[in-house]
């Protein structure tokens, strides 16, 4: 659980090379639920380090963004390699993706922004995708020597691009623009239905927070996937949290004396253990907050059930699960 918490907090913070021919020994991507109609290639995808032209439909794909595998799976392809987030292998227990992976086990090729280049090269990928990532230029250049690479979007800070844009980028790279657009539209419809069902959400301010050790607290800014998720449910975010974050960070670090910034209409603690919950509730300065006194705070686990993980991923696969799990909890708070 401690490792899980550290992994969660760690978030806060030109074309590729020639294509390779897949060898029989390489782990290859396979249709997850039936591939879509063949798309027209070449396609060119712009990103932080320029643009990448993909000449033909990629068959072997490696994802290096922490949640990129979800959009790839949703578009009918199983990545041959992926990174490990939460120290939970991506083909593990996540309920929103388990059926998509089936019995396939991708090669683990890194953690967060530390990639094993040798393992990636051994897979002989046609395409490397790194959307929800902090890929460095040096890493991009190294990978581009032997494969096509679509790095993170250039219009946003690392780990700050909205899920819609990252899904669009992935869909374009796979030649599945129309399918990606449909996925995005379906999720937008889900969010809209919640907002229409609960118009009161629009009148409430909400913050998402965590605490990984005594006396230290974290509040997530408007660019963090967790905050974005609740914003799309209709809640108003608190801009003061953004001003407290370090430049380039999507989390504001708070001392107990700064907990008053979390005195909002709805406070969602996403935590890794009951011990963390008890410690937060026992903090004398936290007890003084109205959000606590009036029981408008929610303590949501990352795992078991995987609610916090679902809105931390905040992808086309995880969002429906997250909505189904969190909506009744939010609606029950008066």
Short recap of the structure:
By secondary structure, the chain is α/β, with parallel strands linked by helices.
Key attributes of the depicted protein:
6-stranded mixed beta sheet; 334 residues; 14 helices; alpha/beta; 3-stranded parallel beta sheet; disordered N terminus; 35% helix
Tally the beta strands: 15
User: What value does the average pLDDT take?
Assistant: 88
Broad structural category? alpha/beta
Number of helical elements: 14
- In one word, what is the shape? globular
Distance from first to last alpha carbon? 31 Å
Main beta sheet: 6 strands, mixed
Order of helices and strands: HEEEHEHEEEHEHEHHEEHEHEEHHHEHH
Beta-strand residue percentage: 15-25%
Spans of at least 5 consecutive residues whose pLDDT stays below 50 are 1-36
Helix percent reads 25-40%
What Rg, in angstroms, do the CA atoms define?
A: 20 Å
What do you see in this structure?
The protein has about 325 residues and is of the alpha/beta class. Helices cover about 35% and strands about 20% of the residues. A hairpin with a 2-residue loop joins strand 1 and strand 2. Helix 6 (about 165-175) runs antiparallel to helix 7 (about 175-195), helix 7 runs parallel beside helix 14 (about 320-330) and helix 13 packs across helix 14.
What secondary-structure arrangement, pairings included, does this model have?
Blueprint: H1 2-9, E1 43-47, E2 50-54, E3 61-63, H2 68-74, E4 81-82, H3 98-101, E5 107-108, E6 110-111, E7 114-115, H4 117-122, E8 127-129, H5 137-144, E9 148-150, H6 163-173, H7 177-197, E10 205-213, E11 216-220, H8 225-232, E12 236-237, H9 239-244, E13 251-255, E14 266-271, H10 274-282, H11 284-287, H12 290-293, E15 297-301, H13 307-313, H14 318-331
Parallel strand pairs: 3-8, 4-5, 8-9, 10-12, 10-14, 14-15
Antiparallel strand pairs: 1-2, 6-7, 10-11, 11-13
């Amino acid at each position: 659980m401690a490792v899980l918490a550290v992994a969660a907090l760690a978030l806060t913070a030109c074309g590729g090379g020639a294509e390779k021919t897949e060898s029989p020994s390489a782990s290859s991507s396979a249709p997850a639920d039936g591939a879509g109609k063949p798309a027209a290639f070449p396609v060119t995808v712009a990103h932080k380090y320029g643009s990448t032209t993909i000449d033909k439909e990629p068959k072997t794909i490696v994802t290096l963004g922490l949640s990129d595998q979800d959009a790839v799976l949703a578009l009918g392809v199983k990545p041959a390699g992926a990174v490990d987030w939460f120290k939970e292998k991506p083909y593990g227990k996540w309920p929103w993706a388990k059926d998509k992976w089936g019995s396939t086990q991708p090669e683990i090729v890194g953690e967060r922004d530390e990639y094993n280049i040798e393992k990636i090269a051994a897979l002989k990928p046609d395409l490397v995708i790194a959307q929800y990532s902090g890929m460095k230029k040096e890493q991009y250049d190294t990978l581009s020597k032997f494969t096509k690479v679509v790095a993170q979007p250039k219009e946003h800070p690392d780990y700050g691009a909205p899920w819609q844009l990252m899904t669009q980028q992935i869909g374009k790279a796979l030649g599945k623009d129309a399918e990606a657009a449909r996925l995005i539209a379906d999720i937008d419809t889900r969010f809209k239905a919640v907002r229409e069902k609960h118009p009161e959400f629009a009148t409430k301010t909400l913050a998402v927070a965590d605490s990984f050790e005594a006396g230290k607290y974290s509040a997530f800014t408007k660019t963090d996937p967790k905050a974005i998720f609740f914003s799309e449910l209709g809640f108003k975010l608190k801009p003061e949290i953004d001003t407290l974050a370090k430049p380039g960070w999507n989390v504001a670090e708070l001392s107990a004396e700064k907990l008053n910034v979390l005195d909002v209409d709805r406070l969602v603690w996403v935590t890794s253990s009951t011990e963390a919950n008890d410690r937060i509730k026992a903090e004398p300065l936290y007890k003084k907050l109205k959000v606590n006194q009036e029981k408008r705070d929610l303590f949501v686990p990352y795992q078991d059930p995987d609610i916090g993980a679902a809105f931390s991923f905040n992808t086309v696969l995880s969002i429906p699960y997250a909505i189904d799990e969190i909506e009744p909890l939010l609606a029950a708070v008066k």
